[in-house]
Amino acid sequence: MGYHAWFQCFNDDCQEKYQLNEIIYNCRKCGSLLEVKHDMNALKDKSPQEWKSLFDSRQRTIDFPYGSSIWGKKEWVLPEIENRNIVSLFEGHTNLFRAERFGNTIGVEDVWVKMCGNSHTGSFKDLGMTVLVSQVKQMISEGKPIKAIACASTGDTSAALSAYCAAAGIPSIVLLPKNKVSTAQLVQPLANGAKVFSLETDFDGCMALVQKLCGEESIYLANSMNSLRIEGQKTISVEICQQFGWDVPEFVIIPGGNLGNVSALGSGFMMMKELGLINRLPRIVLAQAAQANPLYLSYIKRFKEFHPVQAKKTLASAIQIGNPVSVYKAIKALQQFDGIVEQATEEELANAAALGDVCGMFNCPHTGVALAVLQKMVNRGIIKKADRVVVISTAHGLKFSGFKTAYHQQAIEGIDCKYANLPIEMPPDLHSVLEALNKIK
């Protein structure tokens, strides 16, 4: 095919290049993060319609690996990897939920929720992990001395890493902040056989330690500062447009913690536009919890400066990050997409998640952050009634049953749980049930 991809320094003043099979995470020349670049001239050998037809023809097939929504776009992801080294669980193809009732409740006619939690491990992290673990398997086959893959995590990254490593037969190492992830998120890597270290620190402390650990060549880093992850996650943008018949929504709202997801979203849309599959870009809205809001604080100062914060405890535990490693990539993407950064308080995110549930969803608290920010954008008139809006739901609500239970028991301190709903206990007879129903009416 002649398609080619490589690592390139993110710093526009440097742009040093490296091969994808090198064990490298930062530019050796200037220290900046890397990004995966593609030979776009080679990709232009197909017309926009030819790419659309190719991707559509692979949709949900059982032809390995192309039935995966990520590997169905292999030429745009890792064009040179050997198919025998691809580790895929046929990820992607998550549904777009038409949130009609929720939209009508808040005053928007065309709201959709991209249910990325309807995946193998229950989060969007699967999209990037299939790419990273596949490339590691390729590198091992070429003789690279990699013995394990490691990550710091607030829950979902560790689940995805451990599952894909288990499928590949590669050992995985997970560093988690003690007592800061849900029970369901903790048990996932344990079940998949990962070596799990529960550390008495926060995510930022785990992130600092895993970078030191991966200074050893035999342990490969799986966090989103490794741009292989971004290559998988960027296909969310392509999949959204594909599901809309190759149309583009006006707004995409995504919750952000370590912020790799923002640059991934931007990368997918930019690639489609450059290759002619779409003719305009959406506005990207990044939603942060007010308890962990370093990018929001930078945004309100027009990104003139950025300062890490000490993240405070938030119900949205997966984005409880005060020093995101992908911040400058995120800022660049937001500037390209006329982006907005907004925050949600604990009460706002909890009630937005619950309102979504009342309207047919089952939201993780991070999706609650995005839904709360959507409400704010509508109330300010930034998002209009007829705008098409896609909210990225990053994880499945079942991972956060403790949050759900505490909400409906009204046991979350300092929060007025507006939509709390508990079972009604009574004797097992029809009269009692009818009497209770009459009272409810």
Automatic annotation (TrEMBL):
<feature type="modified residue" description="N6-(pyridoxal phosphate)lysine">
    <location>
        <position position="125"/>
    </location>
</feature>
<dbReference type="InterPro" id="IPR050214">
    <property type="entry name" value="Cys_Synth/Cystath_Beta-Synth"/>
</dbReference>
<dbReference type="GO" id="GO:0004795">
    <property type="term" value="F:threonine synthase activity"/>
</dbReference>
<feature type="domain" description="Tryptophan synthase beta chain-like PALP">
    <location>
        <begin position="87"/>
        <end position="394"/>
    </location>
</feature>
<keyword id="KW-0456">Lyase</keyword>
<dbReference type="Pfam" id="PF00291">
    <property type="entry name" value="PALP"/>
</dbReference>
<dbReference type="InterPro" id="IPR004450">
    <property type="entry name" value="Thr_synthase-like"/>
</dbReference>
<dbReference type="InterPro" id="IPR036052">
    <property type="entry name" value="TrpB-like_PALP_sf"/>
</dbReference>
<protein>
    <recommendedName>
        <fullName>Threonine synthase</fullName>
        <ecNumber>4.2.3.1</ecNumber>
    </recommendedName>
</protein>
<comment type="similarity">
    <text>Belongs to the threonine synthase family.</text>
</comment>
<dbReference type="GO" id="GO:0009088">
    <property type="term" value="P:threonine biosynthetic process"/>
</dbReference>
<dbReference type="InterPro" id="IPR001926">
    <property type="entry name" value="TrpB-like_PALP"/>
</dbReference>
<keyword id="KW-0663">Pyridoxal phosphate</keyword>
